Amino acid sequence: MKLAALSCLAMLLLGASVSRLQAAELKIATVDVREIFDKWKYATESKEKLEKAREALERENNERLAVINEYQMMRSKMHQKYHADKDSVSAEEKAKLDRQFVSLGRDAFALEENRRDFFSKAKRAHDREVSSQSKLILDRITEAVQVYALEKKYDMVIEMGGYTTRNVPLFVHLDSAQDITAVIIKRLNESGN
User: Fold this and answer.
1) Counting beta carbons within 10 angstroms of the beta carbon of residue 153, is it exposed (0 to 12), middle (13 to 18) or buried (19 or more)?
2) pTM to 2 decimal places
C-alpha cells in the first residue's frame, strides 16, 4: 500500500517536472482585448455610432412621452374645470366635456401603447445591432491575434483582461510572456477598418 502511494507520488512529481520543462519551452504572448476595443479606431467609431443611435432612440421616446404628458395635463385641467364649474354647466355641456375627457383618455392610452411598442421593438433592434457589432469586432480581433501568433510562432496567446468571478485578474503574472496588444492595435488601425 505504501509502495503504491509512493509510486503514485513519484509519478505526480515526474509529471509536474515534465510539465514545467514543456512550459519553459513554450513561446507565450499576452493580449488585452479590452484595450484593443478601447484603442482600435474601427471599434471606437462603432461604439460612438451605436451610442448616437441609442441617444436618438431615447430622444424619440422622450418626445413621444412629452406628447402623452400633454394629453394627461389637458385631461387634468379638464377635470379641474369640470369640478369647479359643475354647478353652472348645463347637462348638455357636461355630456360634451365627459366625451372629450374620455376621448383624451383613450388617445393618451393609445399613444402610450404605441410608444411602448415602438420603444420595445427599437430597443431590441438596437441591442441586436450592438451584439452583432461586438461579435464582428471580437472576431476581427481574434483573427488579427491568430495571424500575428502564427507569423511569430507563438505556442499560446493568453487574454490578460480576463477576471475571475471575484473580480480578480485571471492571470497576475506570466514569466517571459510578451504583450502583443500594442502590435495588434497598430495592425488593426493600419488595415483601414
Assistant:
1) exposed
2) 0.70
